[in-house]
Amino acid sequence: MSQEALKPPAKTKSVLTGLLVLLLLWGSAVKTEANWTELATGMPEMWKLLKEMFPPDWGYLDKIWVPLGETIQMAVIGTTFGAIFAVPVSLFAASNVTRSPWLYHPARFILNLIRTIPDLLFAAVFVAIFGIGPVAGVLALSFFSFGLISKLLYESIEAIDPGPLEAMTAVGANKLQWIHFGVVPQVLATFTAYFLYTFEVNVRAAAVLGLVGAGGIGLYLDSTLGLFRYQQTNTIIIATLAVVLLIDYVSTKAREKLL
C-alpha cells in the first residue's frame, strides 16, 4: 500500500464545515435576537410557572373528558376524509401510474402547496369562514392529512415492483384492472400504516387547534392559560398525554402487524 493511501484525510474540510455551521448559528441567533442573557433571565419565570402547575387539579378531569373525546373524534374524521381524497390524487401524482407529465406535475404541485400551509393556519382560516367549533378543526385536519398521506402514498406507489404491472399490460388489462390488481395489493399495507401514523399526528395537532378556536380540548387549554389556572392546564396536558401514549402504543402495534 502506498504512503499516499495511508495518509490521514485532510482536516481542512471538517474545519471549514464546523466554521460554516458556527457562522450559521451565530447569524441565526443575531437575526432572531436570541441570546443567553434573555434565556438566563427567563429561567426563573419558567421555574415559577412549573411550580404553579403542581399539583394538578384532578377534580377538573370531570370537565375535560367530553372535549377530549371531541378532539379524538375530530382526528378520526379528519384523518378519514384526508385519506379518502388522498388515494385518487396519489395515483395521479405517481409517475409510473400516470405517464403524462401534464397530469402528475400539477398533482404534485397541488400537494406541495397544501403541505406548505400549517394545520394551525388552516384552522384559523376555517374558523374565520365557519366560526368557532369543531367543524373548522375537522376541515383543517382533513387538509393536513390529505397532503401528508398523498405525499407518502404516491412515493410508495412509485417504488412498487413493476413486474406484475408489465404482466397485466401484456395480457391486455385496462387501467382500472391494472390499478386494482397490480397497484393496490402492493401498497395497501403501507397505506394503512400511513393512515395510522397520520391519525397519531392528528390527535396531537387537534389538541392545539382549539387555541385558534377550532374546537376540542384546545379551547379549554386556551381558557385555563388565559385565566392563569395553571393546575387545570397541567391536568389537561397530563390527560392529553395519556390519550396520545395509548393511541401511539395501539397504532404502533397495528403497524408492526401490517408491515
Automatic annotation (TrEMBL):
One of its GO terms (cellular component) is plasma membrane. Residues 68-251 form the ABC transmembrane type-1 domain. Gene3D superfamilies: MetI-like (1.10.3720.10). Keywords: Cell membrane, Membrane, Transmembrane, Transmembrane helix, Transport. The keyword Transmembrane helix applies. InterPro entries: MetI-like (IPR000515), MetI-like_sf (IPR035906), PhnE/PtxC (IPR005769). It is a multi-pass membrane protein. NCBIfam families: PhnE. This is Phosphonate ABC transporter, permease protein PhnE. It comes from Effusibacillus lacus.
